[in-house]
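User: Just a sanity check before I run the rest of the batch. Below are the structure tokens for the first item. I only need the designed sequence back.
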């Protein structure tokens, strides 16, 4: 699905992220779009945890958004790229690779990156990094110009990649969910090579997301992460962790903070997910006490 969204689909997508008015494809509107996307559409592994992972074709990713759901990098950046192109932006896809803490940098196509060409917006910047599918969640587009961006506690250092010629690397703050991400400079025209990566992430027992219930969300002043029943909030005051102790509170946190009402799951299925989350948490507690 490389064809643009129709007017009704564009309006429905924008309503999902709290935007009512379609504007011209300017840098200012691009900033508004990314901020809203990151705030209202959480990065998440809910469907993987439930054993019902969604495919990553553009049509499937768009339908996730329009049906009140969300996903992770392949879904979020795939859908966002379609929205941006439908609004008149020039968007490229890039192969990327996220570097977990304690591991080496890589570009292994386990991340789909985006860039937007806006040569008339700023005389010093031709291309902008636009990524709504990172766990590290930059709140705004970043100019493809090496330097440090953001403000405490969320800073991003953009530098040349050491693992791919001509590529770029985005490093997070020390308390970020990973060390950083590297991007290859070449624009690609197909998502084909990402399909086996998604199959590994979503189905393999060795996947870092296997049996992991995880959501991440950003707004201007804080980031939130829900891992099972542990809520982690990071803002200017530091990092706070809160144990969610009841099913009702868990659902309230999902809806109120992460804008995730679990519309694709019955009440019985939601309760089952909570029971699995609780069982894993109790097992973790016992291991800590041993």
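Assistant: Here's the designed sequence for the first item:
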């Amino acid at each position: 699905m490389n064809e643009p969204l129709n007017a009704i689909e564009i309006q429905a997508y924008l309503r999902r992220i709290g935007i009512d008015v379609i504007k011209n494809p300017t840098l200012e509107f691009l900033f508004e779009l990314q901020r809203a996307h990151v705030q209202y559409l959480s990065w998440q592994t809910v469907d993987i945890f439930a054993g019902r992972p969604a495919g990553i074709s553009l049509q499937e990713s768009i339908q996730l958004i329009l049906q009140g759901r969300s996903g992770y990098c392949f879904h979020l950046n795939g859908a966002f790229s379609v929205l941006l192109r439908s609004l008149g932006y020039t968007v490229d896809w890039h192969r990327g690779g996220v570097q977990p803490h304690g591991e080496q940098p890589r570009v292994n196509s386990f991340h789909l990156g985006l860039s937007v060409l806006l040569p008339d917006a700023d005389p010093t910047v031709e291309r902008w990094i636009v990524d709504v599918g990172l766990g590290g969640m930059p709140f705004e587009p970043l100019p493809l110009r090496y330097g440090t961006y953001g403000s405490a506690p969320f800073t991003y250092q953009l530098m040349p990649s050491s693992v791919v010629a001509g590529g770029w690397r985005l490093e997070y703050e020390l308390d970020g969910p990973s060390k950083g991400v590297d991007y290859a400079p070449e624009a690609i025209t197909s998502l084909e090579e990402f399909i086996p990566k998604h199959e590994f992430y979503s189905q393999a027992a060795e996947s870092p997301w296997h049996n992991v219930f995880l959501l991440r969300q950003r707004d201007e002043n804080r980031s939130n992460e829900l891992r099972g029943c542990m809520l982690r909030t990071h803002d200017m005051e530091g990092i706070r962790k809160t144990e969610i102790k009841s099913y009702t509170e868990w659902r309230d946190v999902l809806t109120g903070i992460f804008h995730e009402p679990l519309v694709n799951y019955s009440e019985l299925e939601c309760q089952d997910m909570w029971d699995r989350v609780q069982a894993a948490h109790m097992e973790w507690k016992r291991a800590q006490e041993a």
